Amino acid sequence: MEGGNSPNLQLQQLPLATAAVSVQPHTDSFSYKENLIGALLAIFGHLVSSIALNLQKYSHIRLAGSKDPRAYFRTKTWWCGFLLLLLGELAVFSSYAFAPLSLIVPLSAVSVIASAIIGIIFIKEKWKPKEFLRRYVLSFVGCGLAIVGTYLLVTFGPNSHEKMTAENITRHLVSWPFLLYVLVEIIVFCLLLYFYKEKNANYIVVILLLVALLGSMTVVTVKAVAGMIVVSIQGALQLDSPIFYIMLVCMIATAVYQATFLAQASQLYDSAQIASVGYILSTAAAISAGATFYLDFTGEDVLHICMFALGCLVAFLGVFLITRNRKKPVPFEPYISMDAMPGMQNMHDKGIAVQPDLKASFSYGALENNDNMPEIYTPATLPIVQEQHGPKGASAPPYRVLEHSKKD
């Protein structure tokens, strides 16, 4: 009798499985809602962070152009920017707990768009009518492309969601795709570090590839930490698990080394180049890490993946056009070349006057051409006459340079 009842038991379980499948559309609609919440948090965070950084920049500029002896951290404008920066970073941090990693990372293009617009309006960068087409039209086109790319990213972004519990994170951490990805990343990172340190390969691509590889691990750990905090707030405590603190330590360590390489890159290259190249490399590395660790694109159809890739390419092109025509800073020249001193052997026939930089920079001792300068700015020169052995009654020149041979 028991053997005869077992088929009936198996048949009774089939409707339950079918009912479980029917719940899937509700889960999809809820996941789209989570995607929207995460995307809005990321956009809001990047926008507020960009406003905060420009407020702090405005505070430095205003102090530098006035006689105010106060330090920058004693001004209300700087502290307002600092508080807004904390709010923006908190919003970006929270967005990782709601939306997939591959969707949140490319949305950092919003900060580039906001910085380009605020730099023209808020900081009031000066421009001439002849330079408008050359400098700003491509920037506006880049902003439009970046906005279109952001729309495609939000619309066709990956839709995979799971609770960031300690068990799920541990299972992803020991999966063979991620272990293979980490192995390849470690090998590439060590090779790049060897060429950068030992062979002095100070190329911008090399430095920013190091930043991107570290950044991919940073965003993976950020999503794990943020997700476990949200799950703990919802009632299932995850902060007592060792994996939470492992991810927290990895997040802090990779962020610190990432900032170190970025500081080294900023000393060698223009900030516009760092923004464009860094955005492209960091986004590509982060999407690869999200696809291997969190399996963001599992179950997505080919159309959504292609449209998401198109959104990334359009956003990349927009960021490149925004940063392409940024005004290059005047290099700082703290030393005076002795070849440019009056009366010495000069590289130019007309000579170069040694004067402080008359431009709106903070450099001193820059070399300015004195062809069009007023007479009061031209330095006084002394005649140089070589000593000639003539008759005793000849008058001596006012300034002599004695030439001595090696025998003397």
Describe the structure.
The structure is a single chain. The protein has 408 residues and is an all-alpha fold. The protein has a domain at 101-320. It contains 13 helices and 4 strands. The protein has helices spanning 2-22, 24-64, 76-95, 101-104, 109-121, 129-135, 137-155, 166-173, 176-197, 204-233, 242-268, 271-293, 302-324; strands at 353-354, 367-368, 385-386, 400-401. Strands 1-2 form a two-stranded antiparallel sheet. Strands 3-4 form a two-stranded parallel sheet. Helix 9 (176-197) packs antiparallel against helix 10. It is globular and about 60 Å long. It starts with a helix and ends in a 7-residue tail after the last strand. The relative contact order is 0.10. Residues 1-27 and 329-382 have low confidence and may be disordered. Keywords: Membrane, Transmembrane, Transmembrane helix. The chain crosses the membrane at residues 36-56, 77-97, 103-123, 135-154, 174-196, 203-231, 243-262, 274-295, 301-322.
Q: What is the helix content?
A: 55-70%
Oligomer: single chain
Largest sheet: 2 strands, antiparallel
Extract low-pLDDT stretches. Answer: 1-27, 329-382
| Overall shape | globular
- The chain-level mean pLDDT equals 75
| Distance N to C terminus | 127 Å
Strand content: under 5%
Number of separate helices: 13
Total number of β-strand segments?
4
Nearest-angstrom radius of gyration?
31 Å
Brief synopsis:
The chain is built from 13 helices and four strands. With 408 residues, it is an all-alpha fold.
Key terms:
408 residues; mainly alpha; two-stranded antiparallel ribbon; two-stranded parallel sheet; 2% strand; globular
